[in-house]
Amino acid sequence: MKRIGVFICHCGVNISNTVDVKKVVEEISKIPSVVACADYQYMCSDPGQDMIKKAIKENQLDSVVVAACSPRMHEPTFRATVSDAGMNPYCFEMSNIREQCSWVHLDGEKATKKAIDLVKSSVARASLLEPLVSQGVPVVPKALVIGGGIAGIQTSLDIANSGYKVYLVEKEPSIGGHMARFDKTFPTLDCAACILTPKMVDVARHPNIELLTYSEVESIDGSVGNFHVRVKKNPRYVDMEKCTGCGSCAEACRLAGRIASEFDMGLGKRGAIYVPFPQAVPLRYTIDPEKCLFLKHGKCGTSPKCADVCTTDAIKFDDKPEFVEFDVGAIVVATGFKEFSAELKPEYCYDKYPNVMTGLELERIFAPSGPTGGKPKINGKEPKRIVFISCVGSRDKKVGNAYCSRVCCMYIAKQAHLLKEKIPDADITVMYTDMRAFGKGYEEFYERVQKEGIKYRRGNAAEVYGQDGKLFVRAEDTLLGEPYELEADLVVLGTGLTPNPLAEGIGKLLHLSLSSDGFFLEAHPKLRPVDTVIDGVFLAGVAQGPKDIPDTVAQASGAASHVVNLLSKDEIFAEPTIAVVDEDACVGCKTCMLLCPFEAHEFDEEKGVMKVNAALCKGCGSCAAACPSGSIRMNHFTNDQIIAQLLEVL
Ligand SMILES: Cc1cc2nc3c(=O)[nH]c(=O)nc-3n(C[C@H](O)[C@H](O)[C@H](O)COP(=O)(O)OP(=O)(O)OC[C@H]3O[C@@H](n4cnc5c(N)ncnc54)[C@H](O)[C@@H]3O)c2cc1C
Description:
Number of domains: 5
CATH topology of the largest domain: FAD/NAD(P)-binding domain
Number of strands: 34
Mean pLDDT: 96
Number of helices: 18
Strand order of the largest sheet: 10-7-6-18-29
Bound molecules: flavin-adenine dinucleotide
Shape: globular
Radius of gyration: 30 Å
Helix content: 25-40%
CATH superfamily of the largest domain: FAD/NAD(P)-binding domain
CATH class of the largest domain: Alpha Beta
Strand content: 15-25%
């Protein structure tokens, strides 16, 4: 018979206020295999852990049960505790008598009875637990960062500065992300380009960073410590080695100034050969194959002008996609966001009137390199009556976005300030839902903007409509409880941040989960905000959820430090709690292969049976539950262990 020790935690008073802990100790002590049983106020504290270690040694325990909170947080703590005392960590079992008992019941007597049942069931399972050994996997000391916005840039620089090689993959022709579009940033009004472009240049020059722009991750195989990555470099139709970025091709292009620029949100124009913006990194030209006359129709006048004027012979119309493959030990997803599509709020007539624009479009109007050279002109005129509408696409269940985008209140305050600075006699009103100025210096900035004469009126706008060539916004002031209407030369929609559809493929490749708002889900919202449930895969920036630049940079550095921590190890140990196939019983039906979300099952053609790739298996158990011949066994969750536990509570 196994020698089991059981330790009951009071969790301060979280458990002991409802459950009679002494009674639980008394009942559990009666089980013949339980040779040590004690309670303590905080079992996870140092004295609590010492109590367990001492009991293991004094009573030669084979298994330990701790009855406390959810194993999600403290199972690793107690596994380490028993391991310190020389016990195999997989001989440890946790009973959740807080979330599953004291927190959800008011009747102390019944809760105590339930706690006793739960602990008894854990003891039944603990008596069948077997020691398991983790396999060591060598770590490739390189990292992949996906997305070259400020999050990806900061992560890459931090990892590279620690001495590890980084592959930074960016879908667009240049790194920079959304921040590259801004003129100034709240609340300090720093010039965005002045703080971002030096970092972009550092990335390009860093000996440890390999920058793959205009590229997409095609496939990712393997697991923590050893991922194999295949990246597709899209053809630029310009030789990156030969192009000097002089720009004569763009000037000569027959379509120069005739194609809507994506970087300028369609407000500015570019040619078929272009750089997204003058400070692009790398400063190399790209031909748009959808627009270029020569690539589309095989003819551009008598000959393509770009090729005629290029003195370095860099134009390469026969360019083809290239594929690069490499191994990395860790991956950071920094794929950012997409601005909310204002068309989804038809009541604001975004599609109808050019003087109804989004926050991101107004950013380009402010930018000196933008379509109006930084002059706030709409349809060639300075707007004098300006209305901002907040929470467009945020905190709005009708469009499926219940969450707050966290940056709109502040970017509206910034934009209102910049407009007032440029047009001092402008009459500016912000229609807001609630003001959220949560960051350092934000409240002060909001106050400053109000003192500058910007009017704030609480209550969301109902609609924007045009009449007799004029534009009006109809709203209700929810503080005064009265409807009102404002005439406007410019209406700015404070559009929110939504999950980036360009990142969907990455999520699928890495088997990442999404939270209810559609952004990538972190392993734990408070304690592991940069980890994902997939070992070796981390999150940075808005890919994980809406945030401003300071929080993005902080999270990016956090992700980088986790990566460096991982890459600094020679080998890492994979969890042994995985599926194992009994080759004698397996009939090779491949049901497990079809179900496995991690593609961990392979068919052994020679033997006609399934094999499990231990590095890929996450121990989810889908295969074992579905296997028609019952030939898959889950380490640490065997049928015998689960049935013994169930019988005890039934
Ligand atoms: C109008 C507006 C104004 C703002 N003003 C401010 C401000 O003044 N101050 C402030 O602190 N914050 C501001 N913000 C918030 C700020 O934009 C974000 O905090 C910041 O851009 C987040 O950076 P990121 O790198 O996470 O995402 P992004 O900037 O979105 O960068 C993500 C990058 O990943 C790339 N990418 C996406 N998918 C893939 C893929 N599959 N493969 C490869 N690459 C991919 C994208 O092309 C992009 O380059 C503002 C936001 C808006 C909308």
